[in-house]
Amino acid sequence: MASSTPVARVWLAEGHPSDTDNLYHAAELQNAEGVRNITASRALSGWFDTYRTLPPCPHHDLGKFLKVTDALHRPLINPSPPKNVNVISSRSPAGAPLQLVAISAPQLQLQLTKPHLQVPSSSPKFLEKSRSLKVDTACYDLEDSVTPAQKPSARQSIVSFLSQPRPPHISELSVRINAVSSGLALQDLTSVLEAPNLDALVIPKVNRASDLHFVTDVLRHKLPQRHPSSPDASSKPLKILALIESAEAITNLNEICKASPYLSGLIFAAEDFALDLSLTRTPSLTEFLYARSAIATSARAHDLPSTIDLVCTSFRGAEGVKTLEEECLQGKGLGFNGKQCIHPSQVEVAQRAFAPGEKEAEWAMRVVIGDEKADSSGRGAWTLDGKMIDVPVVGKAKAIVKKAEACGIDVEALREKWKHQEPE
């Protein structure tokens, strides 16, 4: 049954107008955080309070889907929806005039390969050296690579580093704090949240939703202006990445993925997971297959943009490069879109492995061109090289072409090369 107390704010994901399943997902995510009695005019006058909803109901039936608080049974302050905002209803379920506006939430974004390079915060030498790196994400560590005696000075060092001009070739600057269960997380957060160039927090040993609730409460108190719902685009919402390291975490993935609006992705910590289950890591990595599949699948089910695969412990010599390439391709095949790196030499290999290959990009462009011609002739399914091409395959091909373009591949040249491709 529905509750009698408003418990959440709701939005509709961009690109899915009138999709109540997405609406329900957003409501549940916010409810898991414990949000209550939110002012309608807080963000673009477009957020609204909801009661806890019933399980998914028919599309386009918002009236049965949720109830709106009495305080909102009136026109919103801003009656015109802002740019990129979807109007999902013009009347409240009770019949009183009300324009419900749903601000766009991040749907599953196009994610390029994301090498996630770890840097110990206790080493001034490594901090300065990281300025010259060309990497998607640099993760400055306050946890395992920092001894207990060094943690206070490491906090000071990383805050100082992240208060200086940003390194020119690092897209995202993150800090891995100590686990909530360690008792050190609050000290870490109190320090690093002062750093103006902090983009993301990596939370280790996330075993249950409450671990993220703790961090979320601190963020809402310390940096309310960087909440994902902030109406100011320049505020740069802070992101959370959760490290999945135990059997308990695997069994709680659904709750973890809904635990915080800041959550942007999951990272698999294979060595800690092996310790928890008394596993021996083998070259095939089959002992991690279930956990890796569960992580990638859960992240996709909850539209989390980043899924970062395990560390490759081999990085020296030709054999190390070969092992890294194999692991990257295996992770990519399981649904991961990034790789943890422990040495700068691993970054380029990971970027190359996760980007679309030449043959993959050509196949995708052939499918896209062939489908355009098939569609113009009214054919819903056709074949290419003897294999059936239908809607899901075309969707995958289009995603590959888009990713290839973002990775710098000349897709227009590919289109010109295959412009005569015909559906078979």
TrEMBL record:
One of its GO terms (biological process) is oxaloacetate metabolic process. It comes from the Eukaryota. Residues 119-344 form the HpcH/HpaI aldolase/citrate lyase domain. GO terms for molecular function: catalytic activity; magnesium ion binding. Its cofactor is Mg(2+). The keyword Endoplasmic reticulum does not apply. Coiled coil: none annotated. Keywords: Magnesium, Metal-binding. The keyword Metal-binding applies. This is HpcH/HpaI aldolase/citrate lyase domain-containing protein. It comes from Venustampulla echinocandica.
